[in-house]
């Protein structure tokens, strides 16, 4: 059973961290006897855009559909292509067209990583943020009228469907079920957003009836953001709509240290389409070309990918290797070290 993986390195440091992600997955595949077949694509990327006037060929969906997973670096090169063009022309198409309705971000304070919050020890922060990834506040329903006049108005609707809400909640409850704390927090704002958020709360209560062992609570997004910073140790699984989840899933990793280690996954849990695994960080033009980008986020994404393909032991071994490297070194400059991307990647692969 060989898993076909599409390699989409993209732009900037995406091209530098990708080889280290592959190296680490190959090491785990060798140790746990997993068949992996990599295929590299030159798109989506801003280089491709400059040659062809688009981020990807028109038949991108047909070309990628047969793969078991998409291993994605980062796209964006703002000097030559505006960011909304590079992101809407690639990543956002994948999320929608491949119905990757779960955006999953593990947030953990790991040993050896300086924490920006006071008095936090490794182990204090260990949560999973589950963001709805296809509907909610990020709809394209709306419009503008009377532009440039005093009567100008702009309208953008949020869309919450029962299917869309229930499937993300179900995923989050199932995930909480598998974790020792069995605790789920829902982000809401039903005191201010008086139609959609009470509906969201109602669906959380309905779903919770099927999971009696799980403790669940809800917080309004404003106080929830404050609590992420003040007392992150109280959270386990956190589920949120598209917009709230977007904010929390950047805030969470920021509370747990450098952006160079944070991974994420865009999942289609039914496996009707390939899922996509990508670091939280972007293409980092400011450090590109020096071989100093931290490859750990990309490597951790590789671990999540193997987990999703069914290899939990391989995932655990990869994360353990990352943790050991964070303690013993080598480290890239963002963590105060002097090692290169390649040195860190090779060290982690050899631990695996
Ligand atoms: P960024 O994440 O690329 O960089 C932010 C800061 O973090 C920079 O100072 C960078 O040097 C540092 N950094 C990021 N990753 C690092 C790593 N692995 N090791 C060490 N330091 C690291 O975000 P920025 O600068 O806002 O965006 C740059 C480009 O990336 C833009 O074109 C943006 O649209 C794109 N982008 C793409 C994403 C994606 O493909 N999913 C996500 C975020 C941004
Ligand atoms: Mg974001």
From TrEMBL:
Classification via SUPFAM superfamilies: Isocitrate/Isopropylmalate dehydrogenase-like
Xref: InterPro entries: ICDH/IPMDH, IsoCit/isopropylmalate_DH_CS, IsoPropMal-DH-like_dom, TTC_DH
Enzyme Commission numbers on file: 1.1.1.83
Domain Isopropylmalate dehydrogenase-like: 4-348
Gene3D superfamilies: Isopropylmalate Dehydrogenase (3.40.718.10)
Needed cofactors: Mn(2+); Mg(2+)
PROSITE patterns: IDH_IMDH
GO MF annotation list: tartrate dehydrogenase activity
Catalytic activity: (R)-malate + NAD(+) = pyruvate + CO2 + NADH
Entry keywords, A to Z: Manganese, Metal-binding, NAD, Oxidoreductase
Top class in the EC scheme: oxidoreductase
Family, per entry: Belongs to the isocitrate and isopropylmalate dehydrogenases family.
PANTHER family: D-MALATE DEHYDROGENASE [DECARBOXYLATING]
NCBIfam families, alphabetized: TTC
Protein name: D-malate dehydrogenase (decarboxylating)
């Amino acid at each position: 059973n060989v898993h076909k993986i599409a390699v989409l390195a993209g732009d900037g440091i995406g091209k530098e961290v990708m080889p280290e992600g592959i190296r680490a997955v190959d090491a785990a595949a060798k140790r746990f006897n997993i068949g992996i077949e990599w295929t590299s694509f030159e798109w989506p990327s801003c280089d491709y855009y400059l040659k062809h006037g688009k981020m990807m060929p028109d038949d991108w969906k047909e070309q990628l559909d047969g793969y078991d997973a998409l291993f994605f670096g980062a796209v964006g090169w703002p000097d030559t292509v505006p960011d909304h063009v590079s992101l809407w022309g690639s990543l956002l198409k994948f999320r929608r067209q491949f119905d990757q309705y779960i955006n999953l971000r593990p947030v953990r304070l790991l040993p050896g990583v300086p924490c920006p919050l006071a008095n936090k020890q490794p182990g204090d922060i260990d949560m999973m943020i589950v963001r709805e990834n296809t509907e909610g506040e990020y709809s394209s329903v709306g419009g503008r009228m009377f532009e440039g006049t005093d009567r100008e108005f702009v309208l953008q609707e949020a869309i919450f469907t029962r299917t869309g809400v229930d499937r993300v909640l179900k995923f989050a409850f199932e995930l909480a079920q598998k974790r020792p704390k069995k605790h789920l927090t829902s982000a809401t704002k039903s005191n201010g957003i008086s139609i959609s958020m009470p509906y969201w709360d109602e669906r959380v209560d309905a779903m919770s009836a099927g999971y009696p062992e799980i403790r669940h609570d809800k917080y309004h997004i404003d106080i929830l953001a404050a609590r992420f910073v003040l007392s992150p140790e109280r959270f386990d699984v956190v589920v949120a709509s598209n917009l709230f989840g977007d904010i929390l899933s950047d805030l969470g990793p920021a509370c747990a240290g450098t952006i160079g280690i944070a991974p994420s996954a865009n999942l289609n849990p039914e496996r009707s389409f390939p899922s996509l695994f990508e670091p939280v960080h972007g293409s980092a033009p400011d450090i590109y070309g020096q071989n100093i980008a931290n490859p750990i986020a990309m490597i951790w994404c590789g671990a999540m990918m193997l987990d999703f393909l069914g290899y939990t032991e391989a995932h655990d071994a990869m994360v353990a290797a990352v943790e050991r490297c964070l303690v013993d070194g080598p480290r890239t400059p963002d963590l105060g070290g002097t090692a290169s991307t390649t040195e860190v990647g090779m060290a982690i692969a050899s631990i695996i």
